[in-house]
Design a protein that fits this description.
The complex is a heterodimer of chains A (55) and B (494). Chain A is mostly helical. Chain A has one domain. Chain A contains two helices and no strands. Chain B has 494 residues and is α+β, with helices and mostly antiparallel strands. Chain B contains eight helices and 24 strands. Chain B has a five-stranded antiparallel beta sheet with strand order 4-5-6-7-11, with no helix packed on it. A five-stranded mixed beta sheet of chain B has the order 17-21-20-19-18, with no helix packed on it. In chain B, a hairpin with a 3-residue loop joins strand 23 and strand 24. The termini of chain B are far apart. Classes of the chains: A mainly alpha (55), B alpha+beta (494). Chains A and B meet through helix 1 and helix 2 of A and helix 2, helix 3 and helix 5 of B.
Chain lengths: 55, 494
Amino acid sequence: MEFLNFLLILCAAWLVWRRPERERLAFGLLVASCLLMALLFFVGARGSIVPGVNL
Amino acid sequence: MSALTEARLRAILAWVVIVLVSGPVAGAVFLGALHGDSPCILCWAQRTSMVLIALVGLFVIRYGPRPRYVGMVVLLGVFGQYMALRHSGLHLARDIGQGFSAAVFGAHTYSWSWFVHVAALAVIGVLLLFLREVAGAEQPHETRGASRFAFGLFLVVVGANALQAFVSTGPPPFMGQSDPVRLSLNPKHWVWSMDELTSPAPISLRGSWTVPQPEVTAAAADPASARGPLANLPTLAVSGWERVGVPLEGTLRGLARDSATGRYLAVTEGYGVFLLDSTTAQVLHHVALDGGFSIDLTPLTGAAFLGDTLAVVGTNKSWVLLRPDAKADAGEMWRRFRATDGGVSELGRGRFATVRARLQYVLSLAFDPAAQELITVSVPSERQKRLVVSRFARRDRMLSSEFVPRLGAGLAASGEHRSLAEYVVTGAAVAAGRLYAISAAYSTLLVIDLQARTVQAAYAVPGLQHPVGVAVRGSQVLVAQADGRIAVLERPAP
């Protein structure tokens, strides 16, 4: 899934650089990538959302 | 200082993107290529966040500082810091030099991620602070010079990251791993897995740190020793009942007896500490500790005599040392006591650090005069099911040893999955090298040989109600209850 996320990022960067009129699509890819990143992080951190330290 | 024009902002951002991409993001790929370092699933997310911050920088370079770009980079900075702290929290408190995977310039990558996200937010803040007001929607800006180089570098470095991600984590639906193997371009060493989705750990806010404060009342919910984890225990009948002879402010939470003077030390809820005479009919000294001064002292739960020194402990293994003192400094003690009779000084307070009993509360305190060690016994929780005896040197209150007692000869578990961890020790005292520990759960007295580290004997003690403390008086074991009554038991022969 990390591989997929980097592909999304590459697509977004390519659109911004070479197809700047597709800003909405590029920003949508950016948002999707952020959500996928957060999802993967919470999958990895499922045992404890808050750090294992005294709060 | 002159205001920052949008054109200059975009020029600066191009260099920020170049530094961010060529530094931590490209450096991470080099760590993999040169040293075989592979990120774990949490590291991947942190690296992705840094890449996304750089991507937002490219958006600004192309389209100008639109509000949603600013909002996005702030969110990424905040979430990136959360991820770095959450991840570092697994390792920050380990011993010197220990951590996860490779270190760079003395810090591990998850720690560097925190620094990078802080720096990103700081840079954004400074740039916005000096940015001149910009006009509304504009056409995309041309990319040339540093801007063009930033785009090209970004694509190359992120492409390299994508390649590493493919090798290390695989195509969808495979994903990163908690303990990835080192990076190799040889496909036979590639590990593509979905273990993170299939392993059984539930979603939880605090994980193994979800440990509620122990309650004597809850622990004593089942006083029937016959249903306890040890089978066929002999009965030790209560030979008599006594009562604490003076009213104490608050419910009794612990009791100790000084074998040299016969005095008693009682602790109550509300941080009350009472030094009683040998008949318990007279209060010799009394203080109410300030539980919030200096350290977080959870409700008091145990007491012990260390010669003339009085030791009390809270459920979170935080301790306070006191001493009767006719010359107590009233000004100094004001900060430590909410109430005092003026005849007690506090010598200090601190926290017991345990290893085996980590993430466990205690409900008892004892003192071994032969070894000059304080002793606690951990109580189990849903998350941590262990009965651990922890010993601390009186001299520095550091951990001396810990052990999980074994069952001695003649003792047997009452079922295949039963264990000592089901007992909830709420009071303990030492006599003749043995720890007498009363469990509110299943109303059982455990006799633990401190040398052999075994439960030498165990006795069902019917008739107890919410036991909170144990004291030894000659040939007798006294079990104090929360209601102030004291059960007298004849101390069984070794």
